[in-house]
UniProtKB/TrEMBL annotation:
UniProt protein name: DUF1697 domain-containing protein
Coiled coil, from the record: none
Organism: Mesorhizobium hawassense
PANTHER family from the UniProt entry: BLL4334 PROTEIN, DUF1697 DOMAIN-CONTAINING PROTEIN
One Pfam family cited in the UniProt record for this chain: DUF1697
Gene3D superfamilies from the UniProt entry: SP0830-like domains
InterPro entries, A to Z: DUF1697
Organism phylogeny: Bacteria, Pseudomonadati, Pseudomonadota, Alphaproteobacteria, Hyphomicrobiales
């Protein structure tokens, strides 16, 4: 950790989806800055924030952000906070490198926790289409050859796995990793 702090990425779930629970990224950036975070940058409208924090505890940051967010906006959003090193491992551990160049066909689900063997088996039983998935720790990698929008299986993941999480396409994953690498420099 530098003298200024550690770099983190916050991934919001359920904001700016289908015209509901709208949060403008400029307002989200100002919100993070008002909480004392520095080097704050947002990426696309789905709620991705790269920031620097003096506190190096992702779990504590998650609780702080979720409580402050609900107080400000009047609704809750599950937030996954991960450090830059976690994002580096996510990219390095990609089990589908052959489709990394097709970012709309590769997604990473950032999960609140590692699923149990029983939860993973239950999900595998539902994977009967062209999709493939692999879980590594608290990340579910999904290769959807026809894209996420046409994937029946992708819609089954949250309610079958029952582990809270939020998905990002590979383009977003790579952009956030790049932003984290430039933050605080």
């Amino acid at each position: 950790m530098s003298a200024k702090g550690s770099i983190f990425v916050a991934l919001f779930s359920g904001i700016n989806v289908g015209g509901n629970r709208i949060v403008k990224m400029a307002e989200l950036k100002a919100f993070f800055e008002s909480l004392g975070f520095s080097d704050v940058a947002t990426y696309v409208q789905s709620g991705n924030v790269v920031f620097q924090a003096k506190k190096a505890d992702a779990a504590a940051l998650t609780k702080e952000l979720e409580a402050a967010f609900e107080k400000k906006w009047g609704f809750s959003s599950r937030i996954m906070v991960r450090d830059a090193g976690w994002f580096e491992r996510l990219v390095k551990d990609n089990p589908y490198p052959e489709v990394a160049g097709e970012p709309t066909k590769l997604h990473a689900y950032v999960l609140e926790r590692e699923p149990t063997a029983e939860e993973t088996t239950r999900l595998a039983d539902k994977c009967t289409g062209p999709e493939q998935f692999e879980i590594k720790g608290d990340v579910l990698y999904l290769h959807a050859p026809d894209g996420l929008g046409k994937s029946v299986f992708a819609n089954l993941i949250p309610r079958t796995l029952k582990v809270p999480g939020t998905a990002r396409n590979w383009r977003t994953v790579l952009a956030l990793l790049e932003m984290a690498g430039k933050a605080g420099v």
